[in-house]
Amino acid sequence: MTKLIYFAWVRERIGKAEEEVELPAEVRTVRDLLMWLKSRGEEFESALQHPEVIRVAINQEHVDHREEIGGAREIALFPPMTGG
Amino acid sequence: MSVVPVVRIQAGDFDVAAEIALISAGKADVGAVVTFTGLCRDEAGTLAALELEHYPGMAEAEITRIAQEALARWPLAGITAIHRFGKIRPGENIVLVVTASRHRQAAFDAANFLMDYLKSRAPFWKKEHLVDGSEGSWVDAKDSDDAAAARWAKS
């Protein structure tokens, strides 16, 4: 099982802060994950309609969309950051 | 002597003078301390508060990674970075960066670098709450912040 965590407007549009999922074997990269999530319903479609803007962290480190997911325990999806 | 950065993610306020005293305490070779404090603006009277959401765990980890990179680039005697989360009203503090070094240039440059990287890489998001009672929108990331971070990239 992989823990998915959502922040800011990604969280609001999906309608939950986190979930545990069993990722299908064909989901190998971050890009695959975004495409698979997008197909899970309207709320995911709305949150991920522009997947290229979504930032992703695996095990609490930034990764790009080509990164292999491997055995990630925790994957977070969020908009570009606006701290500071 | 290896420097361990001080990184705190907290809901409460911080005391800038106390942090300056702490970073230089017992270090007689510190000749320069630079601080940057980021405050919440009122956006011409329209903003009641900012709500800062963060990714617990990663926020500390990412700011520590940024601080380690600053330590590798400049001869620093200390780094402190404090970022608040939760509801913050106009005039209140959001973020503090303190750098200490023998000479001023390293402390100035490192503080500038830390803020540029922190804005584009630390997992925090701001939502506006407006004076008229409505929930405003999520603050958009600025391309200028990415450009500010990119200018530190090593060629």
TrEMBL record, chain A:
Gene3D superfamilies named among the record's database cross-references: 3.10.20.30
Domain of life: Bacteria
Membrane-spanning intervals of the chain: none
Pfam families: ThiS
Name of the molecule in the record: Molybdopterin synthase sulfur carrier subunit
High-level lineage: Bacteria, Pseudomonadati, Pseudomonadota, Alphaproteobacteria, Hyphomicrobiales
Automatic annotation (TrEMBL), chain B:
Broadest EC class assigned to this enzyme: transferase
TM segment ranges: none
Catalytic activity field: 2 [molybdopterin-synthase sulfur-carrier protein]-C-terminal-Gly-aminoethanethioate + cyclic pyranopterin phosphate + H2O = molybdopterin + 2 [molybdopterin-synthase sulfur-carrier protein]-C-terminal Gly-Gly + 2 H(+)
Gene3D superfamilies: Molybdopterin biosynthesis MoaE subunit
Pfam families attached to this UniProt entry: MoaE (PF02391)
Highest taxon above the source species: Bacteria
Keyword Nucleus: no
Pathway(s) per entry: Cofactor biosynthesis; molybdopterin biosynthesis
One Gene Ontology MF term: molybdopterin synthase activity
Keywords: Molybdenum cofactor biosynthesis, Transferase
EC number: 2.8.1.12
Similarity section: Belongs to the MoaE family.
Quaternary state and interactors: Heterotetramer of 2 MoaD subunits and 2 MoaE subunits. Also stable as homodimer. The enzyme changes between these two forms during catalysis.
Stated role: Converts molybdopterin precursor Z into molybdopterin. This requires the incorporation of two sulfur atoms into precursor Z to generate a dithiolene group. The sulfur is provided by MoaD.
Entry protein name: Molybdopterin synthase catalytic subunit
Organism: Aminobacter ciceronei
